[in-house]
Write a structure and sequence with these properties.
Layout: H1 2-6, E1 22-30, E2 33-38, E3 64-70, E4 82-84, H2 134-160, H3 163-168, H4 174-201, E5 211-212, H5 219-240, H6 247-270, E6 272-275, E7 278-281, H7 295-302, E8 306-308, E9 321-323, E10 327-328, E11 333-343, H8 344-348, E12 354-359, E13 362-367, E14 369-372, E15 379-384, E16 394-400, E17 414-423
Organism: Powellomyces hirtus
InterPro entries: Ferritin-like_SF (IPR009078), Pigment-catalase-like (IPR052965)
Protein name: Ferritin-like diiron domain-containing protein
């Protein structure tokens, strides 16, 4: 499941070689909360802090604590081990601009990018309407990267799970036939985007697929991950469209975004959840507005599923954020698990950190409460799901170090996330237990 994959808090190094993660800590259940215990004995004077191995952390000011891991979780909830490749400075890493492309040769074609890079220029601001630009090329390759992932995901899953597997999982085998249709859509998106890039900007500018690690174990996990990927696709397209200059490319992107939304609705209806011993479906239409996301949040969601890429991702993903429960109600106090570089002031000052909860075009921040577990000395954190999000059953949650909105243009104050929290106010689609 994507939820399971997102729980591995690591930073992806996208390269031609396989990324190898180093364990930082283990989770044990103490009372009503999960506690992070240091894999190595803590340094004197830092009993309450779980820190990453010193060789993995960048230099930080004397007032900062290296890679603090904070967590909170109800008893019995499973929180996976945390792994990290490198620490991210407070506020998250800014996007790494791609190399400035060489002047276009006669005929308007863009020369292929240097080996190991992604063609196109990351947008600094929405481009004026007109002819296709290098920013358009970047956005198209961004979309193609996600479509490659989705196409590969369905191919692997449907090769692994046949009709009998769907029947054994309590699903009509005809659902698998519908998944084959969804797979064909994703393949069409890949071929179409590749064709548009190559015909508009010249051969060699379309990004190739990456290597993936989907970790598919069950049909139910496949459906849940597929639903999360399709929701991410919708947020990615709605967030990126403002940066496209060429009207024809905007229209093409919009037509793909609507199909991703239809896929998400179907998969939400199939994605059963058991809450309070009642089996129901995630709402197929969980909100009156979709939530647009910027490049870094989207790549942060996709990163745990990517093993390696033949090109460097244009942004560095934020550290992963895991919630003690991903389904609940408004005003629930939710435990948080994330690894980030925090200053002493952020650790000790109430309100220094916030949960930024995004719903559609709106958002609400609630303070993060950090405390020290008296039994282990580990850091515990939680925040409240805001009542202001009522009417939305699908929320995106970030941890931020400033009382500012998380926007497509500004997410530098994000220190972890995003992750999804679902509110099951009312089950609109009933399913039978099997």
């Amino acid at each position: 499941m994507l939820v399971k994959a997102l729980a591995s808090a690591f930073l992806l190094v996208a390269s031609a070689t396989t990324a190898v993660a180093r364990p930082v800590s283990e989770i044990t259940s103490v009372g009503k909360r999960a506690v992070v215990e240091a894999a190595e004995p803590p340094v004197a004077g830092e009993v309450a802090v779980t820190s990453a191995p010193k060789e993995a952390a960048p230099a930080v000011p004397a007032s900062a604590s290296p890679s603090v891991t904070v967590a909170a979780s109800p008893a019995g909830s499973a929180v996976p081990d945390i792994e990290v490749l490198a620490s991210i400075p407070a506020g998250g890493a800014a996007a790494t601009p791609a190399p400035t492309p060489a002047p276009a040769p006669a005929g308007g074609a863009t020369p292929p990018p240097p080996p190991g890079t992604m063609a196109g220029t990351p947008p600094a601001a929405p481009a004026p309407a007109g002819a296709p630009s290098s920013t358009d090329l970047f956005v198209l390759n961004y979309a193609l990267t996600l479509e490659h992932l989705e196409a590969a995901f369905y191919k692997e899953a449907l090769a692994k799970f046949d009709a009998a597997a769907f029947t054994a999982a309590g699903m009509d085998p005809a659902i698998r036939d519908q998944m084959l249709v969804v797979q064909s859509h994703e393949v069409t998106h890949v071929t179409t985007l590749t064709s548009v890039i190559e015909s508009t900007f010249g051969p060699g500018n379309a990004v190739p697929p990456c290597e993936y690690n989907f970790g598919l174990d069950t049909v139910a996990g496949f459906v849940a991950t597929a639903a999360a990927l399709e929701r991410t696709g919708v947020s990615a397209y709605t967030g990126a469209i403002k940066f496209i200059a060429a009207d024809a490319i905007k229209t093409a992107g919009a037509t793909i975004a609507t199909i991703e939304g239809r896929h998400a609705s179907l998969l939400n209806a199939l994605n059963t959840q058991k809450v309070n011993n009642v089996v129901s479906n995630v709402n197929p239409i969980p909100a009156p507005f979709d939530t647009p996301l910027g490049f870094t949040p989207v790549f942060s969601i996709a990163a745990p599923l990517i093993k390696a890429c033949p090109f460097a991702l244009p942004v560095q993903p934020f550290p992963a954020l895991t919630l003690s429960k991903s389904i609940g109600n408004f005003r629930d106090n939710i435990g948080l698990l994330f690894t980030a570089t925090l200053t002493d002031q952020q650790l000790t000052t109430p309100g220094a950190l916030h949960c930024a909860t995004l719903f559609g075009l709106a958002q609400k921040r609630t303070p993060v409460t950090i405390s020290t577990d008296p039994r282990s000395g580990g850091m515990l954190a939680d925040c409240e799901i805001p009542i202001e999000a009522q009417g939305f059953q699908e929320l995106m949650v970030f941890i931020v170090n400033a009382d500012l909105d998380v926007t497509i243009d500004n997410d530098k104050h994000v220190i972890a996330g995003p992750t999804t929290f679902q509110v099951l106010e009312k089950a609109l689609v009933k399913v039978a237990t099997s």
